[in-house]
Specification:
With about 300 residues, the chain is an alpha/beta fold. The chain is built from ten helices and ten strands.
């Protein structure tokens, strides 16, 4: 009798773990069991002028993020000296240690590639560069790395043909992403993929849990951006919140209430990052965006 009771109690103890275990590796399309819990970050491109001029360093950016109360920072590759060559481990580990001391995560890294390029050798060089920076991302502890579809003319080739080799290139990146434990995620960026349905088609064709989507709300410029954002929201692994959206191609201030509502509706749990592209003091703009979004989100 005692043995039966022990077996029963053991079974009851393990049941919640087994029932919930699938959520550990669920795709972004799976509905989370827990309530939505956002984490906040800031993208280095917000400080593009300051970082390029040397007026600000990535360490300074971390100090700003910590003081503002953010949870993380996005460290874009081209603000490292020598990019696209990878930094030495000492540089990476100093950044990692600084983040720890400030109570921050390094959630994201990003590189610049072009898979629209007609030259296969150039695309292959970009794939090798992406592989190198996936290693960098893993060393920094980042969970996701941004890559682009690309841009440029493709005279002599249809959009369908470009998409076919783009899917193949993304699949090669995704295979290596799995080896490094860092998701290779596409930021659609309004350079070649302009509409939500196109983006979703690429995601489905690549068909890898190590290939994801960074939803850029400022890069949906055909029709109603909020409807396009709603389409993409279930697929997003990471979000970029910007100060402007484009209604039928015309810029207007983002409606933070609408963005917050979409996030709530899909029960998104993860990082959103603020990125300023406007003239003015980027620290003030990012602070304003963060406060405005959080106020609207917490009302819901």
């Amino acid at each position: 009798m005692d043995k039966k009771r022990r077996d029963l109690l053991r079974g009851l103890t393990l049941t919640p773990i087994l029932l919930g275990s699938h959520s550990l590796f669920a795709s972004p399309l799976g509905k989370p069991i827990t309530a939505s819990r956002l984490q906040y970050s800031v993208n280095a491109f917000s400080f593009n002028t300051l970082l390029n001029s040397g007026e600000m360093t990535l360490f300074d950016m971390m100090e700003f993020a910590s003081a503002l109360g953010l949870n993380a920072v996005d460290l874009t590759g081209y603000y490292f000296s020598g990019y696209p060559n990878i930094p030495d481990d000492k540089t990476l580990f100093q950044l990692k240690k600084k983040a720890l001391l400030l109570g921050l995560n390094i959630s994201w890294t990003g590189v610049r590639n072009n898979f629209v390029n007609l030259d296969k050798a150039s695309r292959q060089a970009d794939i090798e560069m992406i592989k190198n920076w996936l290693q960098v991302s893993s060393k920094l502890g980042a969970s996701i790395m941004r890559i682009f579809p690309g841009k440029g003319e493709h005279e002599g080739y249809s959009r369908t043909e470009v998409k076919n080799w783009m899917v193949s290139d993304f699949q090669e990146c995704a295979k290596y992403a799995e080896e490094t434990g860092v998701i290779a995620a596409m930021q659609h960026h309004n350079d070649f993929l302009y509409e939500a349905d196109e983006v979703i088609d690429i995601l489905k064709r690549v068909d890898s849990e190590w290939f994801g989507l960074i939803l850029d709300i400022g890069s949906l410029r055909r029709g109603d951006p909020y409807k396009e954002i709603e389409k993409l929201a279930p697929y997003a692994n990471y979000w970029f919140i910007k100060e402007l959206v484009y209604m039928d191609g015309i810029a207007e201030p983002v409606n933070m209430k609408k963005i917050a509502t979409i996030l709530k509706d899909v029960n998104y749990t993860g990082y959103i990052s603020f990125e300023s592209l406007s003239d003015g003091d980027p620290k003030q703009i990012v602070t304003s965006m963060f406060n405005d979004f959080r106020k609207e989100y917490e009302k819901l």
